[in-house]
């Protein structure tokens, strides 16, 4: 497995986005199926698993996805210490499926402590602020994460769904090397503002973790291939799946890019992993990189 740098860690060039195991997919797998999917990813060499406290079937089952990840790691025959788990907090979910955001220190501390219990660890490898809380300054939320790091509850800090301006604030608050990762939506189709954030991370050697790298739940790689014919063409020419082509394009965007494709069955993540060995030619990359209508 080829590797890349994620803050203080060296991880697989492709990670596993665990969300579809609990939430957002067309079909939610059983617990056994979900655990088997994580095991398949780990056995294939994936060493980064991405989850979040809100990935759950309902508001009153928050932590569901973290529980699956914890169970899979506890029952896996490999080296648990070689796997980096990233989780996220800062989005609230309450009775009646009322969603909100809370970036206060008190809330983030309570969220981190619950994630620690669910994951069964003393400190979280990578904790990411899931979405900005517009009721407070961005610096306040980042400072809360720094406090939790100083308390020993989290090892590395990341942010998600952040603009370049917010990334500048995070970098200033955390200091040199303090921001481990940025997780934003990014795919061949979703690239307007994200292109700037991708470049910002590349200039500073900060890991960029594209979420929905294959187009997102309910859209998928087939829709991307329709909008970007080059994806289908390269797939046919190389005899590989469209999702391998899309993930290879992500990897070619920079050494700091670590795509985290979601999967709800072993076959899907095993196909995605093969993208690490698919090197696009310059022509193939440029054809995919070209945005129709731009």
TrEMBL record:
The lineage of its organism: Bacteria, Bacillati, Actinomycetota, Actinomycetes, Propionibacteriales. GO terms for molecular function: oxidoreductase activity. InterPro entries: AKR (IPR020471), Aldo-Keto_reductase (IPR050791), NAD(P)_OxRdtase_dom_sf (IPR036812), NADP_OxRdtase_dom (IPR023210). This is Aldo/keto reductase. The keyword Lyase does not apply. PANTHER family: AFLATOXIN B1 ALDEHYDE REDUCTASE (PTHR43625), ALDO-KETO REDUCTASE YAKC [NADP(+)] (PTHR43625:SF40). It comes from the Bacteria. Residues 14-289 form the NADP-dependent oxidoreductase domain. Pfam families: Aldo_ket_red (PF00248). GO terms for cellular component: cytoplasm. Keywords: Oxidoreductase.
């Amino acid at each position: 497995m080829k590797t890349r740098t994620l803050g203080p860690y060296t991880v697989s060039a492709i990670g596993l986005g665990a969300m579809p195991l609990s939430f957002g997919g067309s079909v939610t797998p059983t617990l056994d199926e979900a655990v088997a999917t994580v095991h398949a990813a780990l056995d294939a060499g994936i060493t980064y698993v991405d989850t979040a406290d809100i990935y759950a079937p309902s508001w009153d089952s928050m932590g569901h996805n973290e529980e699956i990840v914890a169970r899979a790691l506890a029952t896996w025959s490999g080296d648990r210490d070689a796997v980096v788990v990233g989780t996220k907090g800062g989005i609230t979910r309450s009775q009646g499926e009322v969603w909100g955001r809370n970036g206060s220190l008190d809330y983030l501390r309570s969220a981190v402590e619950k994630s620690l219990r669910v994951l069964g660890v003393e400190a979280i490898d990578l904790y990411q602020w899931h979405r900005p809380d517009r009721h407070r300054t961005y610096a306040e939320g980042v400072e809360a994460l720094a406090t939790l790091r100083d308390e020993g509850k989290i090892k590395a800090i990341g942010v998600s769904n952040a603009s370049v301006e917010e990334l500048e604030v995070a970098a200033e608050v955390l200091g040199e090397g303090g921001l481990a990762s940025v997780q934003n939506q990014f795919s061949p189709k979703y690239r307007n503002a994200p292109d700037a954030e991708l470049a910002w991370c590349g200039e500073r050697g900060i890991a960029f973790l594209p979420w929905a790298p294959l187009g997102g739940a309910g859209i998928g790689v087939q829709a991307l291939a329709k909008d970007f014919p080059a994806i289908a063409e390269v797939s046919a020419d190389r005899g590989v799946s469209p999702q391998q082509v899309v993930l290879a394009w992500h990897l070619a965007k920079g050494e700091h890019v670590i795509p985290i494709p979601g999967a709800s069955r072993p076959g899907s993540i095993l196909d995605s992993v093969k993208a690490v060995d698919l090197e696009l030619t310059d022509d193939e990359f440029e054809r995919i990189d070209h945005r129709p209508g731009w």
